[in-house]
């Protein structure tokens, strides 16, 4: 496959898909948002909608992004988000280690009152608690050790190493996600969640499940006595009471590098450990472009990359967090900000007769449910040489009427490349 004549900026708006919300007069955030730039992009191309991972699957971001980049895994072949995040932050990881994604969470009377412990956790506090756990945790199995690595906000990566290989075939302790063959799938949850016991999913995983349960209980005990938590309580901040674990993995993934897969120079602008891990696994060149909300800088860097790259994938995190917080008005405002600051800057910096723009999402995060869902997300393929299908906005409703029809996530990249090449 040779796509060396293609120039494409591929933007994934994390969790931007949504459902009608009463706070928005029965509209979705994309429908309610004033998005003149995205409207121009949509009117200059063709639309469709996407089931990123599969019918009935409310995916986590890792497997959703892999699919949206054209990589579809069988359940048994997927390494697990824990491994991807460990790779993303550069933890010493080798096959046979157990890597898990974790959340610092708040407990009251054994009930989880906040899965993200307030979400915005100071780095000193996150690191201080991690050090206390590493220094004080005790395992009954000799030769077992742990690394607790906080990343951004409430997010933590945990790596457990033992004298003999560990198994990924275990359940999550995080009640909000199921582990289906290594893939994290969001569950519908109520208001009374508790830390779940880790269970083996096959006979040889019993020891691993026991180690995870030991870690979880040790961590709860250590965090309950933590001086960092005592100070946080006095300051009126939420305690970091436990670490909810999910998405176990024990092997480094083996995939075809993205440049080889598509016959092009493919790069990215990403911020979060999971997307950085995906970039490393796929062999993508990564550009620095400021912080999470430095939208103008990200747009300028993406546009500049077209001088040397055929494609650049840009992941913008904002909408997902408002979805998880149930803040429909905040999500709408964030979409408007991205439209003005990112897409407005981007169109000022590129020639749309030479560079195509593809905009979609990794999954929906409806504000009304505060979690990922299996609802389809819009996709727009835009450029001066792309045939317009009559759609004029990037919304869930118009996407469902678009000329591209409904796509599987893994088919978005091949379809976009086909459309761009056929019009050049």
Strand and helix map with partners:
Elements: E1 8-13, H1 29-32, H2 36-43, E2 45-51, H3 61-68, H4 81-89, E3 98-108, E4 111-114, H5 123-136, E5 145-150, E6 155-161, E7 177-180, E8 183-186, H6 206-224, H7 227-234, E9 242-249, H8 258-262, E10 266-269, H9 273-282, E11 285-286, H10 295-305, E12 311-316, H11 318-324, H12 328-349, E13 356-360, E14 377-382, H13 396-401, E15 405-408, H14 409-423
Parallel strand pairs: 1-12, 1-13, 2-15, 10-11, 10-12
Antiparallel strand pairs: 2-14, 3-4, 3-6, 3-9, 5-6, 7-8, 13-14
Descriptive notes:
The chain has 424 residues and is an alpha/beta fold. The chain is built from 14 helices and 15 strands. The strands form 3 sheets. An 8-stranded mixed β-sheet has the order 11-10-12-1-13-14-2-15, with helices on both faces. Strands 3, 4, 5, 6 and 9 form a 5-stranded antiparallel β-sheet that branches. Strand 3 (98-108) and strand 4 (111-114) form a beta hairpin. Helix 10 (295-305) runs parallel beside helix 12 (328-349) and helix 11 (318-324) runs antiparallel to helix 12 (328-349). The longest helix is centred in the C-terminal third of the chain and has 22 residues, at 328-349.
Entry keywords:
14 helices; alpha/beta; 20% strand
């Amino acid at each position: 496959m040779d796509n060396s004549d293609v120039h494409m900026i591929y933007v994934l708006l994390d969790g931007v898909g949504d459902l009608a919300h009463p706070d928005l007069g029965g509209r979705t955030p994309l429908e309610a948002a004033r998005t003149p730039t995205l409207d121009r992009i949509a009117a200059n191309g063709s639309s469709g909608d996407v089931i990123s991972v599969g019918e009935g699957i409310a995916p986590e971001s890792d497997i959703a992004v892999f699919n949206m980049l054209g990589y579809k895994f069988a359940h048994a072949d997927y390494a697990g988000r824990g491994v991807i995040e460990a790779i993303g932050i550069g933890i010493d990881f080798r096959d046979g280690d157990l890597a898990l994604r974790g959340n610092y969470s708040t407990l009251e009377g054994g009930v989880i009152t906040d899965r993200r412990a307030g979400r915005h956790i100071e780095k000193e506090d996150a690191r201080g608690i991690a050090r206390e756990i590493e220094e004080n945790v005790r395992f009954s199995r000799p030769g077992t050790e742990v690394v607790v690595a906080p990343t951004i906000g409430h997010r933590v990566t945990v790596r457990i190493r033992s004298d003999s290989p560990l198994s990924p075939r275990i359940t999550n302790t995080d009640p909000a996600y199921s582990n289906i063959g290594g893939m994290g799938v969001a569950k519908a949850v109520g208001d009374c969640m508790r830390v779940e016991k880790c269970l083996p999913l096959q006979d040889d995983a019993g020891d691993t499940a026991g180690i995870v349960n030991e870690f979880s209980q040790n961590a709860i005990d250590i965090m309950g006595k933590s001086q960092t938590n005592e100070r946080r309580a006095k300051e009126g901040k939420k305690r970091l009471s436990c670490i909810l674990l999910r998405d176990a993995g024990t092997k480094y993934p083996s995939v075809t590098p993205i440049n080889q897969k598509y016959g092009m120079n493919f790069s990215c602008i990403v911020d979060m450990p999971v997307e950085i891990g995906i970039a490393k696994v796929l062999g993508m060149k990564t550009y620095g472009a400021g912080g999470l909300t430095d939208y103008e800088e990200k747009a300028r860097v993406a546009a500049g990359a077209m001088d040397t790259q055929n494609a650049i994938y840009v992941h913008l995190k904002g909408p997902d967090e408002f979805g998880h917080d149930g803040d429909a008005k905040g999500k709408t405002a964030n979409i408007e900000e991205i439209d003005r600051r990112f897409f407005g800057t981007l169109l000022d910096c590129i020639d749309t007769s030479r560079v195509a723009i593809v905009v979609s999402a990794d999954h929906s995060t409806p504000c009304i449910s505060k979690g990922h869902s299996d609802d389809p997300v819009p996709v727009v393929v835009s450029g001066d040489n792309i045939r317009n299908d009559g759609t004029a906005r990037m919304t869930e409703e118009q996407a469902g009427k678009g000329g591209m029809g409904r796509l599987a996530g893994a088919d978005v990249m091949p379809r976009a490349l086909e459309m761009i090449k056929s019009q050049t």
